Prior knowledge:
The protein is mainly beta and 401 residues long. 7% of the residues lie in helices and 30% in strands. It is built from 3 helices and 28 strands.
Amino acid sequence: xxxxxxxxxxxxxxxxxxxxxxxxxxxxxxxxxxxxxxxxxxxxxxxxxxxxxxxxxxxxxxxxxxxxxxxxxxxxxxxxxxxxxxxxxxxxxxxxxxxxxxxxxxxxxxxxxxxxxxxxxxxxxxxxxxxxxxxxxxxxxxxxxxxxxxxxxxxxxxxxxxxxxxxxxxxxxxxxxxxxxxxxxxxxxxxxxxxxxxxxxxxxxxxxxxxxxxxxxxxxxxxxxxxxxxxxxxxxxxxxxxxxxxxxxxxxxxxxxxxxxxxxxxxxxxxxxxxxxxxxxxxxxxxxxxxxxxxxxxxxxxxxxxxxxxxxxxxxxxxxxxxxxxxxxxxxxxxxxxxxxxxxxxxxxxxxxxxxxxxxxxxxxxxxxxxxxxxxxxxxxxxxxxxxxxxxxxxxxxxxx
Length: 401
């Protein structure tokens, strides 16, 4: 574009802005010519393995900042730093909360990041009474891509995102009936399909997103689109490639005992019908996992109802074979009074790890303390107590969203 053409473009843009300001009845009709590149959309944030986006500068007054790359290798969904913005460019990070389910009161508490810096028993920023759930028991909570909350117990219940934005009462708007009267765990893959694991046959099932969309409080039963006979009632964790990490019971391939940890390859989880495939990887010794958490770089943390966390590296979890004897890359002992039994895990955008202890406590393990290998002792930087330190509270299920 030559100088004359550029001048015409700037003057044209100024005239349009002036007309728009007059049409809106504004008192101030002064127009500032747009800066170079004004109006160009910012590039989408580059996502980490877990899909956390980089932070992009806004396009106001100048070229948008290019999204940052993923953060530190150990951070769970940490966003990269924004590139340099234009004259009036800005960057923003989506708000998040640590969500804690108190299965005694039936309330869901959303704690803002500022509430997670020092030990406290303050009221949560968001306090939601969960209605329409007959009992909580061994419950799990997980958010789907639409921001709806799913609570998996004997059945799976969905609460709409609109009722989770502020304190109040949230009502179930869909139910997926369980099978066999056993507790189940659920997870969503990148396509929005819901996966469920339970002790009842079939132990691992997939319900496609289109089928999940038909659920309501009256339509509660679905026929699985896919099932596998290998996994059982253990937590589920997907990586970005669609590989599934979970636990197994009974026999799969050469495995001859219960409670193994391993991986199904994504290629084993496609199609419809029932699959008898053994997992691509199973690990000894036997683990009774109460929770699994995978970081964007592939570190897999396992809680197994002790005061320790077991961690495997991405390279270790990429191996194949049955009953592989793999020594964890590190074991973390939570240094807190009473040697609390680690129950559930959650990771915030800064890489801090949260541990519920199957009591009225949640411990924050700072990101810096999670590096290294071998036997590590980690002192929590914050202990979140139940409101008024209620000894009957039961902070079990937790998640970050």
